[in-house]
Amino acid sequence: MLADELSRLGLHVLRFDYTGTGDSSGEVEEGNQALWIDDILAAHDELAAAAAVNRIAWVGLRYGATLAVLAAEKLPRPLVDVVLWDPVVSGEAYVGELIEMHDALMRIDLADWKPGADAGKEALGFPIGPQLRAAMSAVDLAGAPPRHPRSGQLTVIASRPGPDLDRLKRAVAGWDVPSRWLDVATSGHPNSGAAMNTAPIPTNVLEQIVARIQG
Hints:
This protein is an alpha/beta fold and 215 residues long. 40% of the residues lie in helices and 11% in strands. The strands form 2 sheets. The protein has a 4-stranded parallel β-sheet with strand order 1-2-5-6, with helices on both faces. The radius of gyration is 18 Å and the shape is globular.
């Protein structure tokens, strides 16, 4: 929906699947953090070439937002804007969250299910190999040293308040990039019981992102 709205406004938009996910080539087991960062940079170059533009903004959600920060540090020239929607701050905590969600769903589907010898190697149907888990767990966006994403502006949209985002808010103040922090309440979390069998779209967040990109 965000891509469609930006496109209707006359902006060139590119969405992509990371290697080993969606319609991209590669097996899901081949996915790793370094490769996905390269995917972002490749998508950036593809958009610049296909649309003949040199002013580009990125929008990332959750772990994708975290990867966007890591990739933006490698760019040869700055972006116009990087918009981070509820970025994963602690990779270690995020891995734990995914595993807990996986275990909870398994217990719902299989009443007698218990974690086996392969516990922690899969999350919601996707494998988490040792290399990926180590790389993800090592990420702490709010940790030292400060990050240096190459962008004219950094926008953080926080709709899931918590201690990690509080840490990030303090850390971003020391990053070498002008920043804007937006606390945007949403009507509910997509994983909530109320959202079951529905397609909740936080339109107020999308409106904030569109306004940021247009501005």
